[in-house]
Amino acid sequence: MNPSDDIQKLLDEERIKFYNYSNFKDVKLVGCGGFGNVYRAVLENNELIVALKSFKSNNMTIKEIVNELKLHCKVDIHSNIIRLYGVTKNEDNIILDSMRYMFVLEYADGGTLRSYFQNHFKRLNWNDKLDFALQISKAVKFLHAENIVHRDLDDVEQHQLVLLISDIKNGVREKDIQGTSPAYIKIYKDCWQYDPDLRPDIQQVVSSLENIKNPENLEPTIESTDNIPDTFPDGESMQP
């Protein structure tokens, strides 16, 4: 059986909508990754802006694409996770090293979380930061409940300040920043415990963040941003 038949079978079983590639216009590359590229496109019939995710044929097999498609179907109900609209097939195959099948996904118009922080980090107050942390945690909690293993947090995206997650990656430990709520510091330091048995589970993290977000539980913090670093832990600038 042709490997592509596996994708078609899944489309039929899950009733996933198939879009003709010719229905998309103004297709522009907006991101590149190890597994493929992401394009911004407009769906011609209703002017809906979407993201088209392609796959590099040398890095992913049809089986892996089918598995990822199944995961999207499984988590599509969560508000903090990128919506899957359907699948398309690029018959022109202008991307020579990519497979023809592409996912049609909700477009995160705010870009990646990293790019958002680069442009807005010093303008965020603690409520904004807690919102980001809480939305990430709730999405991770949902993935845990579905027995889904996370992959890459580089693809975390935000849409009008509502965080949307496609993939998840291990965080990088950093030094305490002056002005950070002690309660928040305790959460991430507990998560960094060397012994996994001493780390809080995701439900405890969500509960702790919700408690901090309650104004009555917030401890005074220094609002000055003078001591906030200008770079990410990997050295990339937070500034535009």
UniProtKB/TrEMBL annotation:
Binding site for ATP: 53
Keyword ATP-binding recorded: yes
Key words, A-Z: ATP-binding, Nucleotide-binding
Membrane-related topology note: Single-pass membrane protein
InterPro entries (alphabetical): Kinase-like_dom_sf (IPR011009), Prot_kinase_dom (IPR000719), Protein_kinase_ATP_BS (IPR017441), RTK (IPR050122), Ser-Thr/Tyr_kinase_cat_dom (IPR001245)
Region: Disordered, residue numbers: 217-240
Residue ranges constituting the Protein kinase domain according to the UniProt record: 24-240
Biological-process GO terms, alphabetical: cell surface receptor protein tyrosine kinase signaling pathway
PROSITE patterns documented for this protein: PROTEIN_KINASE_ATP, PROTEIN_KINASE_DOM
Primary site of residence: membrane
Domain of life: Eukaryota
Pfam families xref list: PK_Tyr_Ser-Thr
Keyword ATP-binding: yes
GO molecular function, one term: transmembrane receptor protein tyrosine kinase activity
GO CC term, one of those recorded: plasma membrane
Location(s), subcellular: Membrane
Residue stretches spanning the membrane: none
PANTHER family documented for this protein: PDGF- AND VEGF-RECEPTOR RELATED, ISOFORM J, TYROSINE-PROTEIN KINASE RECEPTOR
Name of the protein described by the UniProt record: 21914_t:CDS:1
